[in-house]
Predict the 3D structure of the following.
Amino acid sequence: MESLRILAENFGRLEGVGKKTATRMAFSVLEWDREDVESFAKAILDAKEKIHLCPICQNLTDKDVCPICADPERDHSLICVVTDARAVMAMEKVREFRGVYHVLHGMISPMNGITPEQLKIRELLLRIEEGNVDEVIVATNPTVEGEATAMYLSKLLRPIGVRVTRLAYGVPVGADLEYADEITLFRALEGRREV
Amino acid sequence: MESLRILAENFGRLEGVGKKTATRMAFSVLEWDREDVESFAKAILDAKEKIHLCPICQNLTDKDVCPICADPERDHSLICVVTDARAVMAMEKVREFRGVYHVLHGMISPMNGITPEQLKIRELLLRIEEGNVDEVIVATNPTVEGEATAMYLSKLLRPIGVRVTRLAYGVPVGADLEYADEITLFRALEGRREV
């Protein structure tokens, strides 16, 4: 069944989905009503069409400027740099962070051929050059790539006179920020240190 | 982001996908190129449109009659009754079974309100009434529901003079047939016993 195989292949391209899981998913969809299947296909197209990057922080949004960047109550002099949009969601759950974000869309990883040029670092520099930025908290994951990215940013930003800090090692080493609980993230934020 | 939430909800409706995984998947799709996203939506609609149930064995197929039912080389007097289409795929990997299949699309489960009437048992009876069926191998999962379904089928079919067998307990108890390896399935098939 060619169409089933193609569907499973598509599921298999999702992050973290193996071949067996992808096949299960394809079978699962076939059990749905036609109406639900059509809604699913529409939801995929809709999301891709409506969601784009915020021109300021590079986070995903369906608005011209994302609600966080557009919020005058937030502290725009404090930028928390994260790897991806999911990390923003995780940080926002803490409810303690009143600054704004910058989403890099990846981490520096020579092993995987990801260089600083492929990340949204240029956009971060532009924001800082516009002034009014006092501190950049580098909240990349506490992994080798995350640390490498933090070091790179520190070396790049400190000469411009920006305070660069790193989340404290309250975050379990080697883990993904997305899976940290609120309390751990809060403590990591409180204990942040200069890089 | 309403459209992201809706997309995540749709992923969450897939079998075995929790809320967190569903959100990851939704974010994952947004990272794809527009072209790939469109192919994904198309694959979903295509699969649902082209794949239907084989009128004989009730397995999923994109042909009028599925390739197994249409194969004159297979032994049509030997029917292996399974829970779902994935179990057929698992059985076919053994390459030792030369009979045909019948897909019930579920198991009897009073706990979950699933009665024999909701399964493709009527269609199985019709096949048997047409004659030429010597043996029915009940290859439902070795779980409570699987056993209940096997007992039900045995009581229903034996009076009609059909030999009813059950896969041997080579299959690990409590597991899903889909995850059994080929050798285990082969042994289970060899050691099948009368119910």
User: Anything to note?
Assistant: The first helix of chain B runs from residue 2 to 12. The two ends of chain B are 55 Å apart (CA to CA).
